[in-house]
Amino acid sequence: MPFHDSDDRRVPGLRGLSRPVIAALLLTSLLSFPAIAQDASPAADTGPSPSVEPLPEGFDARMVKEVRRIVARVDPVRQLPAAKDISYRVIDQETFVAELEALLREEYPPGYLDAEDDALTRLGLLGPDDDLEQLILHIYDQQVLAYYDPKTATFSLIGPVKKIGPFESLIVAHEYDHALQDDAFDLEGSQVEDLDRSDAILAQQALIEGDATAVMYDWAARELKLSDLLAVSAQALTKQDTRQLNRMPAILRRQLEFPYIDGLAFVTAIRGRGDWAAVDRAWEDQPVSTEQILHPELYPDELPVDIELPSIAEALGPGWTASYEQTLGEMQIGVWVADGQRAKSLFPVLPAQLPNAEAAAGWGGDRLVSLDGPDGAWAVVWQTDWDTAGDRKQFLAAARAAMDDLPGAHAAIGADVVGGLSSPVLVLVADSKDTLNAVREALDL
After folding, report:
1. 83-120, pLDDT tens digit by residue?
2. Which residues contact 179 (CB under 8 A, 6 or more apart)?
3. Are 366 and 118 contacting, i.e. CB atoms less than 8 angstroms apart?
4. Where do the H-state alpha helices sit in 224-300?
5. In what order do the strands lie in the sheet with 154-158?
6. 150 near 170, Cβ under 8 Å?
7. Could you identify which of 169, 337, 348, 436 might form a hypothetical disulfide with 359, taking C-beta atoms 3.0 to 4.6 angstroms apart as the criterion?
8. CA torsion 310→315→320→323, rounded to 10°?
9. Is the pLDDT of residue 277 over 60?
């Protein structure tokens, strides 16, 4: 599913920072870098005095001065030239939600989210009573603290914000790194545009957010005292946040965390090849799949198989339409084969290890189409390919287990409806046995 920012739902312009991720990172900072954090203290402010007239929206002169001090120290951390002509503001929650709703209308064609809701429900990734659009709005409303808009080169803090303390300074450092990325690599111009390439979108978002999270992490280790880190970790994740996360459908929670947590792990691995210069090279040759993010050793050489499905709606006959197409990729398939089981991790900042994740590893490529037919009939045809026969066998067993409790009719078979796949598995889901048989016949199975 395409996401952009804090839950990586793909909304143009948002580069959000979620409370749970801040908490995870800072708690790990305390465990991993206590000496650095305790000894480091902000250097004296040597930057120019801020102009107090006119002040940015929601800022007083002291807040402006603190933001300038913070961003001046992000540039050397990230090792990119200072971003030019960056604006910032504080907005209230109501303004943010209104802007988010407008962005959703701009991003998605009419009916798109309903079709995606249907497809995910048919696969069992959403419940029958879930409303995808409302879930997205709720997640953003509850989880986003700030965002960067490359169209206007503005980062917005979601208030009320009365001062730039340690917690707010982390947000500023993170969002300002998005401005650095934008200046250096053109966030909007390089954006994956096609909504039906969610795996590639998630991979790109992992680079974007992993970069900014690594910068935030490094900046905090240099600039914040241990007492600041303790205060931030106590403030960042509330019991209410935890309850909200636990109530999310697993697919949305994984999409929420993936760009930050797995993105950080990816960027850290790439930095091992030459620090930030190696990350800059990754921006020029961006990861194209969540498989590359989850397994940095496969970047950049392991590329997915391009799967193009035949016109199944046409083969099914009059009254059938293809309402939704997508490439899910390893990360989202991992959620599906986990079948509702929770992720396990020793530390919050480590990438989440979902049960049965090995059944999604070895992914070679996939393509899914959700179809609607006459009299309420529907079907999902999902062609996958795997690296080896062993990977294929493992996914085949996991797919059958994941579909055990789905309503209607379903099957997972070792079939190739596109031709030329090395280790194919075809997943079929339908409203009834009659529809499933009609799909089989249309595909010559």
Report:
1. 989 999 999 989 988 988 888 888 889 999 999 999 99
2. 83, 86, 148, 153, 155
3. no
4. 226-236, 239-247, 250-271, 275-284, 290-294
5. 87-91, 154-158, 146-149
6. no
7. 337
8. 0
9. yes
Please enumerate in sequence order all residues whose Cβ is within 8 A of that of 170, keeping only pairs 6 or more positions apart, or say none.
17, 22, 26, 216, 219, 220, 224, 232
Mean pLDDT, all residues of the chain = 86
Buried b (16+ CB within 10 A) or exposed e, 91-106: beeeebeebbeebbee
Q: Give me 215's structure tokens.
A: 């910068």
Length of the chain: 445
Q: Report how far Cα 5 is from the mean position of its chain's Cα atoms.
A: 6
Least reliable range by pLDDT among 55-69, 188-202, 232-246, 400-414: 232-246
| Kind plus residue range of the DSSP H or E element containing 211 | helix 198-223
Q: To which H or E segment does residue 321 belong?
A: strand 321-326
Among residues 79, 349, 77, 83, which one has the least CA distance to residue 222?
Answer: 77
| 19-28, 72-81, 240-249: least confidently modelled range | 19-28
CA distances from 120 to 115, 332, 350, 366, 388 (A): 9, 11, 27, 15, 27
What residue type is 380 in one-letter code? Answer: V
For the stretch 290-318, pLDDT in tens is 999 999 999 999 999 999 999 999 999 99
Residue 169: pLDDT band by 50, 70, 90 thresholds? very high
Q: Which of 164, 18, 176, 187 is nearest to 90 (CA)?
A: 164
Residues 399 and 336: their CA atoms lie apart, in Å, by 8
CA 323/CA 325 separation, integer angstroms: 7
Nearest residue to 336 via CA among 444, 418, 251? 251
Residue 210 corresponds to which tokens in the numbers above?
Answer: 């992993």
pTM: 0.89
At 32, the amino acid letter reads S
- In angstroms, the CA 422 to CA 29 distance is 44
Taking only the tens place, the pLDDT of each residue in 1-10 is: 222 343 333 4
pLDDT of residue 393: 98
- What is the C-alpha to C-alpha distance for residues 264 and 251, in angstroms, rounded to an integer? 19
Tokens read off for 131: 């409303």
Burial class from Cβ neighbours inside 10 Å (0-12, 13-18, 19+) for residue 344 reads exposed
